[in-house]
């Protein structure tokens, strides 16, 4: 039985709203958890966040009804296993280019016989208190999302989605544009066509397609949903903080001129 509401939504292709945590601060994670996101993704890939930082973040949001996800730094079996042991209820795995790499990510996240995840007393099972229950349910509960960030991955999308245990994909349009030799040109027809191919494949395989709406507005969120994206990251903590500071200062300066 799938208990994790985010994994359930991924497989039912229902919209969930999350955001990225890049500052690595547990207090920020607490505040964002209280805001009402469905999930919070801690970003190991593009930050200096380490496993100890993530464990503190997972503790900060524990019991608040928010699903903690970890975008690991690479498709590494030990890192995926550690993130799950320390409180992640799903992983987002970067730079998955083919079915073999997708299978490796899934196997790292699943206990035998489906995978190679190691058994232990750890934070995820309350240091062994809930060992049996966790061991029995984790394979159904843990979400696995792979990132599609290259021309190779876009061309192999059907094979990737056929891997049992892949619950959805998350498109990285900037990396994808680089793999096509047009870095940064995310609106180029070839990139849009690749994204459309991924979305259509997700619909066919009944799995979710994800996207990062960097500057969330009503218009571009609606556009993402209309295009078929259901696993949606809204902004990122560092941008929310930056915008909040700048808006407050601008308001204050306008008030001083009044």
Explain the overall architecture.
Strands 1-2-3-4-5-6-7-8 form an 8-stranded parallel barrel, surrounded by 8 helices. The chain has 258 residues and is of the alpha/beta class. It has one domain (5-257): TIM Barrel, CATH 3.20.20. Helix content is 48%, strand content 16%. Helix 2 runs parallel beside helix 3.
Quick summary:
The protein has 258 residues and is α/β, with parallel strands linked by helices. It is built from twelve helices and eight strands.
- What number of domains? 1
Subunit organisation of the chains: single chain
Count of individual helical segments: 12
Instruction: Tell me the total number of β-strands.
Output: 8
Distance between the termini: 60 Å
Q: Would you list the SSEs in sequence order as H and E?
A: HEHEHEHEHHEHHEHHEHEH
* Global Rg: 19 Å
CATH architecture identity:
Alpha-Beta Barrel
Q: What is the CATH homology-level superfamily?
A: Phosphoenolpyruvate-binding domains
Report strand order across the widest sheet: 1-2-3-4-5-6-7-8
Uncertain runs are: none
Feature tags:
8 strands, TIM Barrel, alpha/beta, eight-stranded parallel barrel, 258 residues
Ordered list of secondary-structure elements with their pairings:
Layout: H1 5-12, E1 16-21, H2 26-35, E2 39-43, H3 51-61, E3 67-71, H4 77-85, E4 90-93, H5 99-109, H6 131-141, E5 143-148, H7 151-155, H8 157-161, E6 168-171, H9 173-179, H10 189-205, E7 208-213, H11 218-227, E8 231-236, H12 237-257
Helix pairs in contact: 2-3, 4-5
